[in-house]
Amino acid sequence: MSFPILGQPDTGDTAWLLASSALVLLMTPGLAFFYGGMVRTRSVLNMIMMSISAMGVVTVLWVLYGYSIAFGDDKANLFGDPTQFFGLKGLIGGDSAKAEGATAATDIPLVGTLPATVFVAFQLMFAIITVALISGSVADRLKFSAWLAFSALWATFVYFPIAHWVFAADGSVAEHGGWINNKIHAIDFAGGTAVHINAGTAGLVLAIVLGKRSGWPTTLFRPHNLPFVMLGAGLLWFGWYGFNAGSAATSNGVAGSTFVTTTVATAAAMLAWLVTERIRDGHATTLGAASGIVAGLVAITPSCSSVNVLGALGIGAVAGVLCALAVGLKFKLGFDDSLDVVGVHLVGGLVGTLLVGILAAPEAPAGAKGLFYGGGWSQLGKQAIGAFSVMAYCAVATFILALILKYTIGLRLGAEQEAAGIDESEHAESGYDFAVASGSVLPRASLPPSSVNGLEERERVGEKVEAE
Questions:
Q1: What is the largest CA-CA distance in the chain?
Q2: Which end of the chain is more exposed for a tag (fewer CB within 10 A), N or C?
Q3: Which pLDDT band, with edges at 50, 70 and 90, does 93 fall under?
Q4: Residue 363: count of CB within 10 angstroms of its CB
């Protein structure tokens, strides 16, 4: 059994990864706003809760055995040893001075130049956001208890092993790490396959097993709060610098290069989505701008270390156009992907992953040559094997897990509960005070003093308050 080496961490790299971990964690509340604004008023709390609950479920599983499955010693090229780091055994600094081979009381377990605990925390944030992404495909109709159970099972049997395939690397944590990274040498710098293709495929399968929302597609399910959506998109863009530049795992030129390509591709995708909307629909929308931002971020995630600025522009533009077109496929194919997880994350992830094989530039940090730079078809083939292998395993495993839950605890709300609204039926709460918003009469005695003192102002704006 091997453990990370013992020694002294690089303080600059450590500071950068701690900051990056916090940025990636911020993406999950950002996603909660992004998804929460896209649903109806009676679903906003449930949508936010699905993202926030992933922070709890995945964290507990990650420190128990998830990290060990993802980064423990390789077992058959499929997963890491789940017992090796169970409960983060051997990684917590308090035990480091007693570890075999320690030369000083200050020696701690390292992953590269980082304290092992910092690497654990950074990778945890990836696991959380991946699970949370799936929730957008099943808005309005999935029981919250079923979501919690699905989150735990899917993280255990799908995300943790696939993270091992993609992120485990020889010479860092695992001996003979995952096969996508170390055997076929497909490039996925920050999670286009493990995060976005994985989550998009799971969202598609879960939406199909769960069934369509009542009234879809004839009923319009309009976003209830576009400012929430734009706020969420902004937080996602901000946090994504931790996602991509943080994946350099060191504060060096690689982090700087990926920071720039991430920005360029995101900007290009947003503009491309808006142009596509303008040509197709006659107008460009704020929802389109927010969706284009996310599509660009998704597409550049696997490729940010392997392309130059021109490549980043190309990936962003292609993703903006294709994802804008792809979100309409659900109406033609008949699957109810509520918030376009498939159109944005699955399609965007495929675009970014496959285009590495075409646009990878030798001057980029990855040093790979794509088709356009004389590298032939080899890298594209590697990218396709990695992408479609993740899709296939995720689809089969998600389908099995969804069926198990469907025929045991049940997946879907009852028809009456769905009609009443998922916030009220699942959480006994609502995101908005509909009585006040509709002008219902409120007794003066029930109002706080500050409200009573402001009675005249409230009456001026039209709110009805019953006199004592």
A1: 82
A2: C
A3: low
A4: 9
